[in-house]
Amino acid sequence: MLRHPQSRAHHQARHDRHRYRAARHERAGKTEGHRHREAQIAKGGYAFGARVNALLAANALPETIELVREVVRATSPRGFMHGVKLGLVDGYSPEEVAPKLNFPVLMISGREDRVNPIDKNAAVLIKQLPQGRLEILEGAGHLPEVEKPELVNKLLREFFG
């Protein structure tokens, strides 16, 4: 396999940046969200089986539910928590993120998303994104790319086409 000569250096720099952020987070102390996620994991691997219902729309097909259940169960709790720590290091506020996005943005949200409700995230972001486009998919939850793959792919082709 051919690799770009800078790819190793780039990867190392990303890795160092993530370690720095994680260490900074540890020094800053745990947030309420972090404590909540740790408690979920302590109940048995983030209560992964039960969590599926929160990720999908109420009318999700049984095959979709089982697929997501298997993927979530295969998720490493340690890796998941590492991601949570990195995500919470600097906090997250749609109002602070939006002005930094000075390029076209396509947001695809499921109407039934209970993890990142539209009114608390996508609707706030889109108001501040001059080049933003928000597509809200009926009958989808937090994973529209899993629940409505044909529609999501169509939207992506249109956006990047």
Q: What is the element layout, followed by pairings?
A:
Elements: H1 7-28, H2 32-42, H3 48-55, H4 62-73, H5 77-88, H6 94-97, E1 105-110, H7 122-127, E2 132-137, H8 144-147, H9 149-160
Parallel strand pairs: 1-2
Helix pairs in contact: 1-5, 2-5, 3-4
The chain-level mean pLDDT equals 77
Q: What is the beta-strand fraction?
A: 5-15%
Low-confidence stretches: 1-8
Distance between the termini: 29 Å
Count of β-strands = 2
Work out the helicity level.
55-70%
Count every helix, treating DSSP H or I runs of 4 or more residues as helices. Answer: 9
Count of domains: 2
Overall shape: it is globular
- Largest sheet strand order: 1-2
SS class: mainly alpha
Radius of gyration: 18 Å
Helix/strand order, N-terminal first: HHHHHHEHEHH
What does this structure look like?
The protein has helices at 7-28, 32-42, 48-55, 62-73, 77-88, 94-97, 122-127, 144-147, 149-160, and strands at residues 105-110, 132-137. The protein is mainly alpha-helical. Helix 1 crosses helix 5 and helix 2 runs antiparallel to helix 5. 16% of the residues are buried. Residues 1-8 have low confidence and may be disordered.
Comma- or semicolon-separated keywords:
globular; disordered N terminus; mainly alpha; 161 residues
In short:
By secondary structure, the protein is mostly helical. The chain has nine helices and two strands. Helix 7 links the parallel strand 1 and strand 2.
